Automatic annotation (TrEMBL), chain A:
InterPro entries: Bact_solute-bd_prot1 (IPR050490), SBP (IPR006059). Keywords: Signal, Sugar transport, Transport. It comes from the Bacteria. It comes from Kitasatospora gansuensis. Pfam families: SBP_bac_1. This is Multiple sugar transport system substrate-binding protein. The keyword Transmembrane does not apply.
TrEMBL record, chain B:
Belongs to the binding-protein-dependent transport system permease family. Residues 76-290 form the ABC transmembrane type-1 domain. It holds the Pfam family BPD_transp_1. The chain crosses the membrane at residues 76-101, 113-133, 165-188, 217-234, 269-293. PROSITE patterns: ABC_TM1. CDD domains: TM_PBP2. This is Multiple sugar transport system permease protein. It is a multi-pass membrane protein. Keywords: Cell membrane, Membrane, Sugar transport, Transmembrane, Transmembrane helix, Transport. Coiled coil: none annotated. One of its GO terms (biological process) is transmembrane transport. InterPro entries: ABC_transporter_permease, MetI-like, MetI-like_sf. The keyword Cytoplasm does not apply.
Length: 437, 302
């Protein structure tokens, strides 16, 4: 019997210690080898169709950089779902890469950790100046009044993708410009097992991007002037309800969309199961799903009738920023690399491959970005896009509000009533879970 | 001479002890210290500079009138029910399969191998396959239940809403029961065949043999097995994380995911650490009571 006692005690100790260490700081693998100034480590986020695809795209460019400067770059492509945690672990341990990709919406949150090199005027000078970038993309690189924590690398904006054939068959001649038109059109298109609109309801980031843009249109800012969260305002409630009503009341999106989290809405649009899709730079994915580029077109996302000023925001400023880890022992080399990646040539090359828009003005002039899709999106970016709140608590806002919308969509899909009160309750709960300070 | 012999085993244990300290105890202590700090993104570069917050993190965690505490409590109950069902079913299935496969018959080896497949598969691959099967519109589960068997009029959701709890239990049992099966099968090997032969001579049927011989003989194995299954299941992180992603539905919000979310998704590391410590205390208490009860019963038996 003593053996059993011992086995039980051993099992107990090992399992319990695992529990308690779960919060003892993330483990970090690798980390940059900063000992030699002739090497850099680069964490690229997954932008292509697979991690392998990204390597194939980036490695020739890195060899070009090596040929120019003699600096060898070690590449690691990080899946999107792991990226924020990897950055946090690197921040906590101080063992990070020299240069890394960050989602531009996290800029202010990561800036608050103090782990990223601030791009003040002198630093910008080393990479060719701030004025080369589209202003809205710089605005999404850190809190206002502070030196940006990163520089824009790839830009994207949301557009309304619509299926021209399905529109024609339903007798609709132009894409909707207002939400009323979108709902009317959507209801005409919803028949025979097809739906007017596809949404990605199980995807927390997707939800919060729409929550933000819809919120702007209703006048909700999500954070007050002092930077304190204000999630449960009447404006925000109206915005979220409008979005959830696509399933709950208007019934122009399939209830099944509430659990979509692996880009199934893009597949549904590509296969003609849904006639409209609100997405950022979907061209490359639609092509990979075999959709004929002539069958769809892109318009700006609708606005409330007569919206103007801040209420005429049709998209968040989406994109990837390039940051330098403050701990890098090769800051000069890292900045050379940033200069290389944001140079016209690389900007054209890489954004073309990924179907995104260069945040660098000169590169945007390249004919590759003059497709109707990208012209629409870069116009959105220049005129009707706003960056997500650039506050230190932004990343928590993303998760909590995104989850609130996910819960509401799940309720709507299950046929439970979605009322102003239930929306307000979810948003209140999200706000109360924000850490203080 | 005797002194050296006495000292040597301890000396040999020293490296293991040092590693154990390094790997387990140090992070544990660090985690406990963190639970008394206001640790947010502003301090993660050097957590030791985070301001002390006393018992604030604990107070917030157990304030059941506010959302953070309320959702922790919800998550606790969900986890208790989940553990009871998952461990219960895994144990039942494991016992049934082990007893069933005790007799030798054609195809026994194949069945044994098949039963162990879930245990051999990498958790991630297996659970992600389940998540595909649970998709409402395209998944195999609804295809089977609705299209083939016509059990429901409308396709139910499995990954969101109320059914997500059922889905979680199903996957957990599928993943866990082979371990119970394996352990109990090993336990059964130790029961002398003569006992069954003697019982059969005395006219005992299959049920009586099971109740009077098999289960009592398996008791020491079961005592460890149930405890291990309880601890593993209560702390299960992989299954819900792969099945539901970073934000699990409320109905299936297991405590491990909940703590992960509090710490790493909302970047409230202090509160997350406090919740971890509370969980640790709870598991210690349950285990102590369990060990006390089982050892007392063993004493009475002897």
């Amino acid at each position: 019997m003593r053996i059993n006692r011992l086995a039980a005690a051993t099992a107990l100790v090992s399992v319990l210690t695992l529990t308690a260490t779960a919060c003892g700081g993330g483990s970090t693998s690798g980390g940059g080898d900063n000992s030699s100034p002739k090497t850099l480590t680069y964490w690229a986020s997954n932008q292509g169709t697979s991690l392998e695809h990204d390597k194939q795209v980036l490695e020739p460019e890195l060899r070009k950089f090596e040929a120019q400067t003699g600096i060898k770059v070690k590449l690691e492509v990080v899946p999107w779902s792991d990226l924020l945690n990897r950055i946090l672990a690197a921040t906590a341990s101080g063992q990070g890469p020299d240069v890394l990709n960050i989602g531009n919406t996290w800029s202010a949150s990561l800036q608050a950790t103090g782990a990223l090199l601030p791009f003040d005027d002198a630093t910008f000078g080393k990479i060719g100046g701030k004025d080369r970038f589209v202003p809205s993309t710089i605005a999404s690189a850190g809190a206002a009044g502070k030196a940006p924590a990163a520089v824009p690398l790839y830009s994207m904006a949301y557009g309304l993708y619509y299926n021209k054939k399905l529109f024609e068959a339903a007798g609709i001649s132009k894409p909707p410009a207002t939400w009323d038109e979108l709902v009317t059109d959507g209801q005409k298109l919803t028949k025979d097992g097809k739906y007017g609109l596809a949404i990605e309801g199980g995807n927390v980031s997707e939800n919060v991007h729409h929550a933000f843009a819809f919120g702007k249109q209703h006048g909700a800012d999500w954070f007050d002037a002092a930077g304190k969260p204000a999630f449960a305002t009447p404006e925000a409630v109206a915005a979220i309800k409008q979005y959830v009503d696509f399933i709950a009341k208007d019934k122009i999106a399939a209830p099944g969309n509430a659990e979509y989290a692996a880009n199934q809405s893009v597949t549904d649009f590509a296969s003609g199961k849904a006639a409209m899709l609100m997405w950022q730079a979907a061209g490359a994915s639609l092509k990979s799903h075999g959709m004929n580029p002539d069958d769809y077109a892109v318009a700006p996302i609708p606005l409330p009738a007569g919206a103007s000023g801040g209420k005429a925001t049709s998209s968040m400023v989406a994109g990837i920023n390039l940051a330098v880890f403050k701990n890098s022992k090769n800051t000069e080399g890292a900045l050379q690399f940033v200069k290389f990646m944001t140079g016209n040539e690389e900007q054209i090359q890489l954004n073309k491959t990924y179907g995104s828009i260069p945040p660098v003005k000169d590169a945007q002039a390249d004919p590759a970005f003059a497709t109707p899709e990208l012209k629409t999106l870069s116009n959105v970016l220049a005129t009707s896009a706003a960056p997500l709140p650039q506050v230190a608590n932004e990343s928590q806002f993303e998760t909590l509000v995104g989850t609130a919308v996910k819960n509401l969509l799940a309720a709507a899909a299950a046929g439970k009533p979605v009322t102003e009160d239930s929306v307000k309750a979810e948003l209140t709960k999200a706000q109360q879970q924000m850490p203080a300070g | 001479m005797t002194r050296r012999r006495l000292g040597l085993p301890y000396l040999l244990l020293l490296p293991a002890l040092a590693l154990e300290l390094l790997i387990h105890l140090v992070p544990m202590v660090v985690g406990m210290v963190m639970s008394f700090k206001r640790l947010t993104q502003f301090y993660i570069r050097d957590w030791s500079t985070a301001p002390w917050s006393g018992l604030d993190n604990y107070r917030v965690s157990v304030d059941f009138s506010a959302p953070i505490g309320r959702s922790l409590l919800n998550s606790f109950w969900v986890t208790c029910l989940f553990t009871a069902l998952a461990v219960g079913f895994s144990w039942l299935l494991g016992t049934a399969a082990a007893v069933f496969l005790q007799e030798s018959f054609r195809g026994r080896g194949l069945l044994r191998t098949l039963f162990l497949v879930p245990y051999a598969l990498p958790v991630y691959a297996a659970v992600i396959t389940w998540s595909f099967m649970f998709q409402r519109d395209t998944g195999l589960v609804n295809h089977l239940l609705v299209d083939q068997l016509h059990l429901f009029d409308e396709k139910p959701f499995w990954l969101i809403g109320d059914n997500s709890f059922t889905a979680l239990v199903v996957v957990a049992v599928w993943k866990t029961w082979p371990f119970a099966f394996l352990t109990l099968m090993a336990g059964l090997q130790n029961i002398p065949r003569e006992l069954y032969e003697a019982a059969a001579m005395d006219g005992a049927g299959v049920w009586q043999q099971l109740r009077k011989i098999t289960l009592p003989s398996l008791r020491p194995v079961n005592q460890v097995l149930v405890l291990v299954l309880f601890l593993w299941t209560f702390n299960d992180f992989n299954t819900p994380y792969v099945l539901f992603g970073k934000s699990a539905p409320e109905q299936a919000d297991l405590i491990s995911i909940h703590i992960y979310q509090s710490s790493f998704v909302t970047w409230n590391f202090g509160a997350g650490s406090a919740m971890s410590v509370l969980l640790l205390l709870f598991l210690l208490l349950v285990t102590a009571v369990y060990l006390f009860l089982t050892s007392r019963r063993r004493g009475a038996d002897a």
